[in-house]
Write a structure and sequence with these properties.
This protein has 5 helices and 2 strands, in the order αββαααα. It has about 110 residues and is mainly α. It has a two-stranded antiparallel ribbon with strand order 1-2.
């Protein structure tokens, strides 16, 4: 299937793919959530964003991170309650909101 005819990923699938970028391993950073394959803890990325850094600045300062990694950190933080309760409906609803936001950005 060519890229032009490829079906876009469903919001739930996109959410799942982003969340796979986050790992929790008791042998890495004391089990704190990190960007997969790095020792960059999610809370560090969130602190940088909270301090006013843009995604572009973070990716420039930490070249081993991608825009998707930063998005995954935000998604992880926002879905943590749903992950803890195991509520798939909450994750699906969030994935739909992500898709709607992407569509608005594309239309702008």
């Amino acid at each position: 299937m060519s890229a032009a005819t490829a079906t876009p990923a469903s919001p739930a699938k996109e959410t799942e793919e982003l969340l796979q970028r986050i790992s929790v391993d008791p042998n890495v950073c004391f089990g704190k959530p990190c960007v997969r394959g790095t020792r960059m803890m999610v809370w560090v990325v969130l602190d940088l964003l909270g301090a006013g850094e843009t995604i572009e600045q973070i990716v420039e300062d930490y070249p081993y991170l991608s825009r998707e990694d930063v998005r995954a950190c935000l998604l992880y933080a926002s879905t943590l309650p749903a992950l803890r309760t195991g509520d798939p409906a909450a994750l699906d609803a969030f994935g739909e909101a992500v898709a709607a936001a992407k569509a608005r950005r594309a239309a702008a």
